[in-house]
Fold ABC transporter permease.
Amino acid sequence: MTTALRRVIFIAMIAGIWEVTSKLSGLPSFMFPSLTQVFETLVNGLISGQITAAIGKSMGRILLGFLIAIIVGLILGYFIWRYKLVEDTLGFVVTALQSIPSIVWFPLAIIWFGLNDFSILFIVTIGATWTMTVNATSGFKNVPPLYQRVARTYGSTGFHFVRTVILPASVPQIISGLRIAWAFSWRALMAGELLGGGGGLGQLLEMGRSLGQMDLVISVMIIIAIIGTIVDNVVFSRIERNVQMKWGVHS
């Protein structure tokens, strides 16, 4: 039995249990909607454009915030790896900041930027930046010294040394950092939209809660889970496999 078939059977079992339980529980539909009701709401939301518009808004925010986090994280990671003074000062602060949940920054974001898209973009970026910085730093530090000595022996210095030796050798660690950073930024986005409004999937969750439409809430949760699964298992897993094959770690 293939992995895909096992997953389909398992999901079908969960769906069957859910449907039967919702019918026999005696709870009102706004508290425990049936799976049929959830899928009707999901399909209607996709057809009407309500859910698709929210998906587009959320994806636009996270892609921009994630891109900023990657750039900032790589730059900070480079300076922390390159300079001992920066490692002892900024590196210490970054490690401390990484332990702070990104949603904790939201009150500050509202004060600084107001209750708008900038606040949500800020916490999305914050959610990924520190993780990206730590993983980039670790990747740069773990480049084998032999590679560096050989490159310098052949006269590689400055940007050429970073571009041809440091970055390629640290790619596996950076890919792992991207995967973790995406997960943090995705969660930060949902929390920010849930609290801050401005459209998006998180705002749909809040609307479903305020209207007592649990079928809408669960529909959006399913969409969030599907997007997260696709990004992790299709995008990052494929990149990771390609990198491993290139480096001879995976056949």
